[in-house]
Amino acid sequence: MADASAQVVVQPIVDLTTGRVIAHEALTRPATGTVAELFAAAADVNALDLRLALAAIDACAGVPTALNVNLLPSTLVGVDDLRDQLDHAIARTGREPHTLVIELTEQEPVPDLVAAKRRCASLRNHGYAIAIDDVGNGHASLRLITALRPQTVKTDRGIVADLPDSDEAAALIEALLLYCRRIGAQLVAEGIETEAQLGALRALGVGYGQGMLLAPPAAGWSAEVAVPPPRLGTVGFTAAGAGEPDGPLMRDLARRAVTAPTDSSGDTIRSLFSEDDDLLTVVLVDPAGRPAGAVNRSRFMLAASGPFGHALNARRSAMQHASTPRVVSPTAPVREALGLVTSRGGNRIYDDLVVVDSEGQCFGVVRVYDLLTAVHHAQIDTALTLNALTELPSGRAIEEQLRRRLIQPGGVAVHWIDIDGFKAVNDRLGFAGGDAVIKEVAKALRTVAALVPGAWLGHIGGDDFLLLTGRPEAELAIRGLLDRLPETDVGPLMVSVATLDCPSGAIAEPAEVSRQLAPVKHAAKQVEGVAWAVGGAWDPHVRLHIAGHATAGSA
User: Fold this and answer.
1) What phi and psi, each to the nearest 5 degrees, are found at residue 486?
2) Is the CB of residue 483 less than 8 Å from the CB of residue 476?
3) How confident is the model over 177-194, as pLDDT tens digits?
4) What's the angle, vertex CA 444, arms to CA 440 and CA 448, rounded to 5?
């Protein structure tokens, strides 16, 4: 066989903040030549492709993380018993389906998009994950992502190579990042080779990456790798991939900045304003690209149009017309930036804000009008998603928050809180009394959410609530809730709590979380009195931690 002597190596996919390895990609290295040359000489390319993928699964039996295995789209579509062969391979190696990621390569177009969509849906339904490789190059088009709905999207290394100097590359990555957040997928940046590229990706909010700077392909797997620490010097930067704050970020509003060197003359600035009637601010930057001043159009034109204005100002340094720039980061929430605007003097309240990246270089500008409009829209959107009784987020807001938390580094603990015997409460106290009980539970949950760092609370509806916390904080949150359960006119309040422990990337869809939470909740409801049941993502076992009254020990 032409591939008998091929070696399989693995390259880590890394959390760009912590260095934690979330997956390994299996790469086949023939003893001679390349994989492409193997394919070119093969009588049946799809048979060879599948044989290499299965051999990679066998070779990586000891890799404890998720494993990415490359497959041609024609193999995905053309091999009828593909899933059966994958099932046999993971059974041999003791893997679970959700730890195997089928990474569709870009070497050829998808021969039948409808068939590929159907096959990917079948694989996902059986637990396998789908990734699209090298998006932005070759045949890995946006149409392919839309049709196949992958759990992982990997950018082409050529896009990353253009960072941090290419605004177009940054814009493309931002667009992919937004799309991935909307569909609950992970974005992985491939080909990271320099610290400048890493810094640009962090500033854009990319949480995961792969490349020679992080770790080269090797025969053995890694649990974590050393990543260069972020260089943060600007108010408002958040850790890449740490989960987005509620509402839009400054990078969502940023426009392209018009810049000029700090030694520019007033005449140069006047020319820039004359060429663009819509331009409000010229950012003066030092040789390293960092903003040193901001020239406001209104104040400059007023000075230049006064008596002897042109004669006095044309040759003067532009820095004499500049104000200290109001600097924010791309990842700052708009509400935080609004505080920066309103805290300044009235003569500068409408000045553009200057957005800088993690290296302190000018990223763009945000107009105050756009900022105020975004805050207004965010407030309206928030109000529309609040539960009328408790004023807690509900509906779409819960789904979006859960989708975001599922892919953040460290994962999430999802707690479903249900009031036991609520119908009896309503029957005894009436609907107004029942509403009062729900409000009291919401109050207790708000207290817990305020005490637990990073906690988020929503109201599913009726007597059901959803609390999201970090996985290490799960027990702290639930025991804190049980200690604060209110008394009612019909006696002590009883609740059932179902917790699903979700490592990062283990589940992509909120609907799947709901499905896996159902048996955990059922187990908690079988216990009389207060009960807390815990299950793990894709783990059929449910552990009952607290049974009976809230003061009882763990079961």
Assistant:
1) -75, 155
2) no
3) 878 877 778 889 999 999
4) 165
